[in-house]
Amino acid sequence: MPPMYRSPFPSSAPPKEVKQDKGPIVVKIDSSSLISVKGRILEPRAVEANLEREKAEKPTSPLIVAAHPEADTEALVTVLDAARAVGIESVSVATSTQ
Fold this sequence. Notes:
Helix 1 packs across helix 2. The chain has 98 residues and is an alpha/beta fold. It starts with 24 loop residues before the first strand and ends with a strand. The relative contact order is 0.21. It has helices spanning 47-57, 73-86, and strands at 25-29, 35-37, 40-42, 63-67, 91-95. The longest helix has 14 residues, at 73-86.
């Protein structure tokens, strides 16, 4: 069987979509109950919009909430309510001392 010929010219096929859907969405809540995503501290009212953007970039990724044991429950509930509002189905909560 002869080897297949490969054209040195670019293909006319559309480029393959690069998936950014790698890794979980991580939200951190520190000991002062400050909520952050990707190192940015968020106001409680901005959590839902930020999770919506993260979900758009990673539609099938799970959410991991890394909450400090001394954080207020209200901060955790804010994140969980926002996750539900934007349709994130897989949510895990872990404690973090950082």
